[in-house]
Amino acid sequence: MMEKIICACGHENPAGTKLCEKCGRPLTEQEQKSKVVDMRYDGIAIRSKTRNKSLIDKIWNFFSSVKVGVSLIIINLVAASIGTIFPQEFYVNVSSIADKATYYEETYGSLGKLYYSLGFADIYSSWWFQILVGLLGISIIVASIDRGIPLHKSLKNQRVKRHESFMKRQRIVAEGPITDGDASKTLDLIEDKMKKLKYNVRREGSAILAERGRFARYGPYINHLGLIIFLLGVMLRMLPGFYIDESIWIREGETRAVPGMEGYFLENEKFILELHDNDPTESQVQQGVNVVAKNYQTDVKLYKQSDDAVAGQAENLELVKEYSIRVNHPLQHEGYSFYQMDFRLNEIKTMIFNLTNKETGESLGEVSIDLTNPQDEYVIDDKTKISLLGYYPGFSGFKDGVPQTATPTPNNPAFIFKMTTPETPDGEMSFVAIRQTIEPNGENKYKMQFKSVETRNMSGLTVHKDKTIPILIVGGIIFMLGVAIGSYWNHRRIWVEQLQDGTIRLAAHTNKNWFSIKKDLNALTEHVSLPKYIDQLDEAAGSEQNEKEGDNTL
Amino acid sequence: MDKKKKRSITRGVILIVLVAAIAYTIYNTATKDKTELLKVGDEAPNFELVDLYDNNLKHRLSDYEGKGVFLNFWGTWCEPCKKEMPAMSNQYAIYKEQGVEVLAINISQTDFEVKKFIESLDVHFPVAIDSTKSVMTAYNVDLLPATILINPEGKVEKIITGEMNETQIASYMESIKPE
Amino acid sequence: MSLIQISGYLLYAAFVAYLVATLLFGGAIKSSKPDGAAKRAEKWGSLAITVTIIGLIAQLGYFITRWIYTGHAPVSNMFEFTTAFGMFIIGAFILIYFMYRIAALGLVALPIAILIIAYAAMFPNEVNPLVPSLQSHWLTIHVITAALGQSILAISAVAGLLYLLKDVDPKIKGKGRFCLEGVLYFLVLVVGFVLITVVFRSMGYEAVFNYVNKEGLEQKITYNMPAVFGMNEYTLLTDDVMEPLVEMPPVINAKKLTTVFWSFIVGTVLYLLIRLITRKRIIEMLHPLVQKVNLSLLDEVGYRSVLIGFPVFSLGALVFAMIWAQEAWGRFWGWDPKEVWALITWLFYAAFLHLRLSKGWEGRKSAWLALIGFAIILFNLIVVNLVIAGLHSYA
């Protein structure tokens, strides 16, 4: 059997109750001895404190404890702060894992090496950090269930009349005859006045309970609910389909399939970088912040395939949207967002050469090679033409006499030309790279003289879809609502009882902001000519309270 | 007593659910990098690409139903891609008769580069260019070379990243050849 | 006179007003004589708060004129943000003053705000154009709300300090006395920083160096104080100035270290002078001034300001920050150091509230917690901005 505490008034209270649920008599020895009772949770039995038997109950009790909760907050706080000692690895600009390890060691010495090897460089996605946050989540849920439900019951079933021992042990008390007027009207006057002060007033015989802002007590539970919904949203992100985070590089003029967004294509029309016309300050240069930038912008067109199309079919695209993506102004479409993240300027797009006679320096004509679409032959006139035999965008050297390319991007373009002119009808071969020309069949008469380039920019965008955002928003709103309710409102209660001889016994309690309830009481005392109340805590602290600063200027 | 038992069960259920949620989150984070959009056994995404040499010839995966399809993603700058091509060409000559199709998909390079490259290697199998990287995206190809084996039922049989030698190529083609 | 000059003068005016108001608040609490002392104190008090309000209006004038001039809310660099933070502390103090009418609060709140504004003035106050990511209305909304929340939270530290000044007996040796004196010593160090910066600035001291940075690139740096610590592989370019004594590795910014060093030296000398001249600890001097304050009322003020500030801080530093981050970068949370420290601040005050509600940590413990909370806020303002570089690094 569960142990019950039977109060002198006859009410059965669950074990662990501090103040009788019905009349308010202090039930524990500690409460009976104290001058001012502990009104937290209104003296209810916190569920888990009452029983402690099975393993489940023990675990439950562990998480229900505020001490554990606060410890978890502090542990999370410390863990989070460790992650800021050195930059996290996702802010470090190196690619491979081996590079990262050496980066930390080279930049921060042996401490950096230790930091990296302990996994602190990616602390926030480590399993143990997630466990810490998870434990805190469990603590929030369990503690709220454990306290919220009984508190709600107790607040709902409040009695108007409380026992003397309860009243006398409140922080603010008053007892005595009224100082002026008709004692038989006192209760009516109190009721009127308290109603005017926007209290809810209940009266039972010679007792009054005036109460205001009870909902403030639910603030903490509401904000905890918001936090839990938020954490749930963050967790849902892990489920497939809820969260997409892809990046995409597009050069000007290119159209690319959008990763993670089936059937959609994005065309980069133009990338724009605008600069402020001031010089960066010294500190900005030091930090490597590109502070002079004014605008990063990509003008794009978003296309959609027809419904029956499959991957690879890039014809008959339907234009969905034209937009200028800027920082802080993402392109949004059907839950997807495109963000401006990065850029690379001036990639070679077209190279222009002059077919030049080496001796005379005379030009036979110009050849413009579009690197996005090189041709086999460039005809200048009927006897003069250039054949393109090879194109190597990222020329990296020869292997077995064959030019190699290291990348598909034109970082270091190289060509093999065959130049046919009236003077050299059989054609001359020439290998042309930047600052390098090789003429395999002996000295040529003509050369492809580099004239100029046209460039284009490349824009780095990220594609995001996050279905959890609405959940996070709901969680955030509930949280803010709960915090505001819990912080800006308070639960004030005033109990009054008129004894048989007409004297008044009064007690008052608020969960916070004693200053304001005292203001209400001052107004009440004056209006009804009640005996002067005392703050038992102030009395305990020192006597001449009225002379103290602050109190005389209410 | 009954009430007490009920409460214990409720508490137990709540705790288990919460712990399971945390465990699932951690598991997901730990395996996040390894999850692939495309897995063995999945339906291979349909696609259509234009042949490198014949603008009227379209390679559409659904047209190859009943055949095994050997999809090879490559680029001219990729050294291992280049190395495995002759072997692919040899084996294709053998398995073509047995109902295996090869398609070498170049990642968004120019016609000129691709043609010159294929000609220089003297290999013979259908080639197409994925100029919008659309097929590459659909197949979640990240590193080259990547080869995807599709069986006659249109399901992904195997995903191979990295270079293959001729024996491997032969056995891969063997594995997707129709009965 | 241009708008930016007007703005500058208004800030000076505010600064002077705060100084005067501090003295007036001093008059408002010195009421030891029984006859009519309370009345006199009240008079001083209302005068003091009037001057404070005039100062706040002047500073608001600074804020608004600078806003008009630059075209964006002046909270985009270290000078602007810190100045605004000082202003909001004054605002929060005025709010609390009208709720509780405790003149002694002004005696602590105003000097702290003055120190913060003076500290801000040590940073370059040039007007910088905004980088693209800052060009958003959320800059205004997020930063102002966050700073407002922090300032209200700061008032709890003000109340806490006042509480401890009365509560801690300067005659009894102990941890409390040592730590509280330490807090005051820190305030003297800030004065030292301001002093030494002003002195060398008025002398026009300059020493230019070349050095090699973390990425191995050669860069130039100008010291405005005699270089005690040299940057990595430095070469001195200015004639007739002090050569650095020690060279630092590339991860350490030797210029900032030098500033810290000088502030420390000057502050310590200053502190020792105070001790030598008065033959007293600073708390011993302040202790008698605060005898009249009501401890339980101060405790309530401290708690109340956390209650008022916490939701504002949550909204500004977390909720609005997330909304903006989502809009600018597509991820509402990026574990940037500044973000993490905002979270830490938030967690700390959450712990504060739980301890107070459920564990009954009131009075002295609560006052110490409030001071620690303010220390975290200052850490986030100073160390995170200047030492740990991230998306938010100003200056």
From TrEMBL, chain B:
Domain Thioredoxin span(s) in chain numbering: 38-178
InterPro entries: AhpC/TSA, Thioredoxin-like_sf, Thioredoxin_CS, Thioredoxin_domain, Thioredoxin_ResA/DsbE_sf
Pfam families: AhpC-TSA (PF00578)
Gene Ontology CC terms, in alphabetical order: cell envelope
Transmembrane segments: 12-30
Top-rank lineage group of the source organism: Bacteria
Cellular compartments annotated: Cell envelope
Keywords: Cytochrome c-type biogenesis, Disulfide bond, Membrane, Redox-active center, Signal-anchor, Transmembrane, Transmembrane helix
Gene3D superfamilies attached to this UniProt entry: Glutaredoxin
Entry's Gene Ontology BP terms: cytochrome complex assembly
CDD domains: TlpA_like_family (cd02966)
GO function term, MF aspect, one: oxidoreductase activity
Name of the protein: Thiol-disulfide oxidoreductase ResA
Gene source species: Lysinibacillus telephonicus
Taxonomic classification: Bacteria, Bacillati, Bacillota, Bacilli, Bacillales
Encoding gene, per UniProt annotation: resA
Automatic annotation (TrEMBL), chain C:
Membrane topology summary: Multi-pass membrane protein
InterPro entries, per database record: Cyt_c_assembly, Cyt_c_biogenesis_CcsA, Cyt_c_biogenesis_CcsA/CcmC
Transmembrane segments: 6-26, 47-69, 81-98, 105-123, 143-166, 178-200, 259-277, 306-325, 340-357, 369-391
Domain of life: Bacteria
Localization terms from the record: Membrane
Single biological process term from Gene Ontology: cytochrome complex assembly
Record's keyword annotation contains Membrane: yes
Domain Cytochrome c assembly protein: 89-392
Main location group: membrane
Keywords: Cytochrome c-type biogenesis, Membrane, Transmembrane, Transmembrane helix
GO molecular function list: heme binding
GO cellular component: plasma membrane
Protein name, entry field: C-type cytochrome biogenesis protein CcsB
Organism: Lysinibacillus telephonicus
Gene that produces this protein: ccsB
